[in-house]
Design goal:
The protein is an all-alpha fold. It has helices spanning about 5-35, 40-60, 65-85, 95-115, 140-165, 165-175, 175-180, 185-210, 220-235, 240-260, 260-280, and strands at about 130-135, 135-140. The chain has one domain (about 5-280): ABC transporter involved in vitamin B12 uptake, BtuC (Orthogonal Bundle). The protein contains eleven helices and two strands, in the order ααααββααααααα. Strands 1-2 form a two-stranded antiparallel ribbon. A hairpin with a 2-residue loop joins strand 1 and strand 2. The longest helix is centred in the first third of the chain and has 32 residues, at about 5-35.
Length: about 290
């Protein structure tokens, strides 16, 4: 019989994981909606963002400034990748080419991390130390702070997309790329913005994950998969759907290992996705 403390920590861990999946899902959604590509190296951007924070903190830079620098650096990297590798070229299939390029980029970035930082796991300084009492259970403060950062990032993204000129242009481009072009919206600028924002969100997710878990060169694979699963569960293009999908997936990954062990926890989310797609092919809040 598990104690209440164990269950409470599993729930908090699940919620924290869920919000990290939401950050990953939003970046993937922006790139898929606006650029029409599936960026399979997004998990490696997550990993590189985390390792950049690790490098900076080892140079006596505080973790919070390091996270900001990492997000900015990954945003710049995203712009470079869009211009050099992912921008559409005449006579080539964008979707197919992007899969090949991002697969190669995955191998390059993970190998670079192995060369630069080694295979041994590393850890970041905690966001905040200590825990507090919640209904008699000890809840780590760093999990709650990670959730808070993720929520604030999502609110800022939503406000940007709904209240700013560039954000509204990105939404228009996602809804109708050709129509927005006729209205004077440059699709290349929208693609650069999507890559920059998506990579910055991935860097934030990686830094938050590294502060509560551990770093290693292949840490991006599972969050990448879970980000895609979050999109499928919530519905492509739906921010509320991504939140719901991320919470479902995070809680499953947080609670099921306590209940049934790691093996069942790895299979259950896939079963949930299949069931959702059987009854809601567009996802929970996807448009029919």
């Amino acid at each position: 019989m598990k104690s209440f403390d164990v269950w409470m920590q599993a729930i908090v861990n699940g919620i924290a994981l869920g919000w990290l999946y939401v950050l990953m899902a939003m970046g993937l959604t922006l790139m898929l909606s606006i650029m029409g590509i599936l960026q399979l190296a997004h998990g490696e951007i997550y990993m590189m963002g985390a390792f950049l924070v690790y490098y900076l903190t080892r140079r006596e830079i505080g973790i919070y400034p390091a996270i900001v620098v990492s997000m900015a650096a990954m945003a710049v990297l995203g712009v470079i990748l869009e211009r050099v590798l992912f921008r559409p070229r005449p006579g080539r299939d964008v979707a197919l080419t992007s899969i090949v390029i991002s697969t190669g980029l995955t191998l390059i970035l993970s190998s670079a991390a192995v060369v630069g930082f080694g295979l041994y796991t590393k850890s970041l300084p905690p966001l905040i130390s200590g825990s507090f009492d919640l209904f008699g259970a000890g809840v780590p403060k760093d999990r709650i702070l990670a959730i808070g950062f993720s929520v604030v990032a999502l609110i800022l993204l939503y406000t940007f997309l709904k209240r700013t000129r560039l954000g509204l242009a990105m939404v228009a481009s996602a809804q109708n790329r050709e129509g927005s072009f006729l209205k004077g919206i440059n699709p290349n600028h929208m693609s650069m913005a999507a890559m920059a924002i998506g990579c910055a969100l991935a860097a934030l997710a990686g830094a938050l994950a590294g502060s509560i878990l551990q770093l290693h060169p292949y840490m991006g694979s599972l969050p990448m998969i879970n980000g895609l699963v979050t999109i499928v569960l919530g519905g492509l293009g739906s921010i509320p759907g991504a939140v719901i999908g991320g919470m479902i997936l995070g809680l499953l990954n947080g609670i099921l290992p306590v209940m049934f062990g790691a093996a069942a926890a790895s299979v259950a989310p896939l079963v949930i996705v299949i069931l959702v797609l059987l009854f809601r092919p567009k996802g929970i809040l996807g448009h029919e």
